[in-house]
């Protein structure tokens, strides 16, 4: 479907980037890593181990909203990776963007922590994971544009599950 964006969301180390990139490839879609849209101040703050607050996230969410809008206007398809932890954040991305589906990568704290500890070269620190789970407002029934995908399993299993869910939701 052209003009459609899929925002792969969840806490750090839930597989957003790796699954998102593979999903984009399978769909023949543009891949946009939301981390690349963070202002410099946010990257520095996270690199120092300090969680972002809502004021820090505002310009980032606006950039993601603009990216979704651009994809729609150019009649493209994109997979955008963004934590989108709170409903208010998802609502900011949704604003004036109706060809949008969120793909929520769901996993337990223990599973995500195990994966985070195995990662290298990422600016998110393991100690910040609890703050992400504390901030997470898991999408509920009042958000019908969200697909829930369990991250329990190996990469190929989770990718197949994600692709099937996205294709079923089209």
Account of the protein in words:
By secondary structure, the chain is α/β, with parallel strands linked by helices. The protein has a single domain, classed as Rossmann fold, CATH 3.40.50.300. Helix content is 47%, strand content 16%. The protein has seven helices and five strands. It has a five-stranded parallel beta sheet with strand order 2-3-1-4-5, with helices on both faces. Helix 3 packs parallel to helix 4. The model has no long low-confidence stretch (mean pLDDT 91).
Short description:
The protein has helices at 16-27, 40-47, 54-73, 87-94, 109-118, 129-135, 155-169; strands spanning 4-9, 30-33, 77-81, 100-106, 146-150.
- The neighbouring-strand order within the major sheet is 2-3-1-4-5
Count of spatially separate domains: 1
> What characteristic shape results from the CA principal axes?
globular
Low-pLDDT runs of 5+ residues are none
Mean residue pLDDT: 91
CATH superfamily: P-loop containing nucleotide triphosphate hydrolases
CATH topology: Rossmann fold
Q: How is the biggest beta sheet arranged?
A: 5 strands, parallel
Helix count equals 7
Helix content: 40-55%
- Helix/strand-derived category reads alpha/beta
- How far is it from the N-terminal to the C-terminal residue, by CA? 8 Å
Order of SSEs: EHEHHEHEHHEH
Number of strands: 5
What percent strand? 15-25%
C-alpha Rg (nearest Å): 15 Å
CATH architecture heading: 3-Layer(aba) Sandwich
CATH class, named Alpha Beta
